[in-house]
Design a protein that fits this description.
The protein has about 290 residues and is mainly alpha-helical. The protein is about 50% helix and about 5% strand. The chain is built from eleven helices and five strands; from the N terminus they run ααβαααααβαβαβαβα. It starts with 13 loop residues before the first helix and ends with a helix.
Amino acid sequence: AISKMTKKVAAAPKVALGKKKTENKKDFKSTHQHLFPQHARDFRIGRDQQPKRDVSRFVRWPKYVRLQRQKAIINQRLKVPPAIAQFTRTLDKNQASNLFSLMAHYTPETRQQKHKRLVEEAKAEVKETKKEDKKEEKKEIKKKDEKKKGDKPMMLKTGINHIFSLVEDKKAKLVVIAHDVDPIELVIFLPALCRKMEVPYCIVKGKARLGQLVHLKTATALALTEVKKEHQQQLEQLVQSCRLMYNDNVDHLKKWGGNYMGIKHRMAEKKKKETLAKEKTAKSAK
């Protein structure tokens, strides 16, 4: 029985067959080149497909995009008076990060957090009143109310009118103004007022970034009135740098902004200067 058993030969792999076919095809093309002539591409209408190009220049952008781009160019071209040009001079990235890290400790409560806190306080008061007599209870409630009135919450102050009154009363320790407020007239008076009342101020990029600190979409300006002892030194350092950059810096109040022309205008002016210089040298040589 063992002698009758024979081994079966393995079938040829399919991959090898496939390779042979492809090789044959390549050989056919190489041997019959006259059947595959190479023509130069013709990009006229109805001929070869056009190559891919960057067509972003020809895109019809939405109106708001066109307006904001036109506004940016106009702001570059026109002469900007110092009162408005000062808003382009903002804090450095490092200084701004230090300022925002400090202000993050004093973000006001959200509605939900405030509601939760008030409910907990009310529950605690109810428990205390059940334990004590009515006379003692009345005295304690009066004392608590006085304490609550005396304890001011340490948080950022918002609202342009509120900040205006804080600066006038010299209660604000540092005023932070956004650089991209529109219309600019809402904030244009604040730097002058801060300088007059000797309140340190600074200009920061992004009204949306200021708004995040106060749970709003945007905020024109913020003010710090009080700070914990832990952050007192950090605030003093920021105040000193802000005074040097803004309050005591008289030079940037005289500098005009804008008046930056396009590349064509600049090249034309350059050529004019070169021709004038050549004429002068020619005259001097004579």
